[in-house]
Design brief:
By secondary structure, the chain is an alpha/beta fold. The chain has one domain: Ribonuclease Z/Hydroxyacylglutathione hydrolase-like (Metallo-beta-lactamase, Chain A), CATH 3.60.15.10. About 20% of the residues lie in helices and about 25% in strands. It has seven helices and 14 strands. It has helices at about 35-40, 55, 60-65, 75-85, 150-160, 175-185, 210-215; strands at about 1-5, 10-15, 20, 45-50, 70-75, 90, 95-100, 105-110, 130-135, 140-145, 165-170, 190-195, 220, 230. The strands form two sheets. It has a seven-stranded mixed sheet with strand order 6-5-4-3-2-1-14, with helices on one face. A seven-stranded mixed sheet has the order 7-8-9-10-11-12-13, with helices on one face. A hairpin with a 2-residue loop joins strand 2 (about 10-15) and strand 3 (about 20). It is globular, with a radius of gyration of 16 Å. The termini are close together.
Length: about 230
C-alpha cells in the first residue's frame, strides 16, 4: 500500500487494485506543484470527498473528467456534483460501505460544517461532513476528514480497528495537534499517524511536534512531504 500527500488534506492512496484520490484539491492549493498534476492523478480510479468545502471538493469534477474516475461523496454533495456535470457519482451515507477496486470504503461521522462555498454567491447546503474507514491489504485507514474530537471515535475505533490515522490537526478549523494527540491516546490504537490540514496557510500549525510528543509510545507520526510516497 502506498499513501502520497497532495498537500493540505489531499492524498493519493494506492490500495488493492484501486487508486483513490482523497479530497484532491489541486487547483489553487499553495502546497501543490501545478507542474506535477498529471503525476498526482495518473491512473485514478475513485475520488473520495469528505465534504463540500472548496479546499476539499473544488477540483473533483475536473479531475473526474480528466481521469474517468468516479466520485463518491455524501448524498447531497453527490447530487450537486452530478448537476455540475460529473458523469459517474456515487452518493452514500454514514454507515454505508462501497467497494473500490478490492478495497472497502465506509463513511463515518465527522464534526464540521459542509457547505459548497466555492461557486460564488451564498454557500449552498452540501450535506454534512464525514470521514472514511478504508480497508484493504490487511490494513484499515481512518481518514478523519475535517473534524474535532468526537465521542463517536470510541465506537469507530472499536468497530473498525484502524491502524493508520490520517488526521486533520492544523487547528482553527479542525482539531489541533494537542487535541489530535488526545484522540489518538483516548480512542485509537494506531501504529502510524499522518497529519494533514496543516502547513497550508499561516493560520494553521506548521509542524507536528506537539502531536509527536503527545501520542502513545510506539506510535509513528509521519510528517508527509508532497508527492513523496509513504509505503506500508
Amino acid at each position: 500500500m502506498k499513501i502520497t500527500w497532495l498537500g493540505h488534506s489531499g492524498f493519493r492512496i494506492e490500495i488493492e487494485e484501486a487508486v483513490l484520490l482523497l479530497d484532491p484539491w489541486l487547483d489553487g492549493n499553495p502546497m501543490f506543484p501545478a507542474d506535477r498534476r498529471a503525476e498526482a492523478i495518473a491512473g485514478a480510479t475513485h475520488i473520495l470527498l469528505t465534504h463540500a468545502h472548496g479546499d476539499h471538493a473544488a477540483s473533483a469534477v475536473q479531475i473526474a473528467a480528466e481521469t474517468g474516475a468516479g466520485i463518491a461523496a455524501i448524498h447531497e454533495l453527490a447530487e450537486w456534483l452530478t448537476r455540475e456535470g460529473a458523469a459517474n457519482v456515487t452518493g452514500f451515507g454514514k454507515g454505508g460501505t462501497i467497494e473500490a477496486g478490492g478495497a472497502r470504503v465506509t463513511m463515518v461521522n465527522a464534526s464540521h460544517s459542509a457547505s459548497i462555498d466555492f461557486k460564488g454567491g451564498h454557500p449552498i447546503v452540501g450535506g454534512s461532513a464525514a470521514g472514511f474507514m478504508i480497508a484493504g491489504e490487511g490494513q484499515v485507514i481512518y481518514a478523519s476528514g475535517d473534524t474535532d474530537i468526537m465521542a463517536d471515535m470510541e465506537w469507530m475505533a472499536d468497530y473498525h480497528k484502524p491502524g493508520i490515522g490520517i488526521l486533520s490537526c492544523g487547528g482553527h478549523y479542525t482539531m489541533d495537534m494537542d487535541r489530535a494527540a488526545y484522540a489518538a491516546r483516548r480512542y485509537f490504537k494506531f501504529h502510524s499517524i499522518i497529519p494533514c490540514h496543516y502547513r497550508t496557510f499561516p493560520i494553521l500549525a506548521q509542524d507536528a511536534q506537539v502531536l509527536k510528543t503527545g501520542v502513545p509510545p510506539g506510535v509513528s507520526v509521519i510528517e508527509p512531504e508532497v508527492l513523496e510516497p509513504i509505503m506500508f
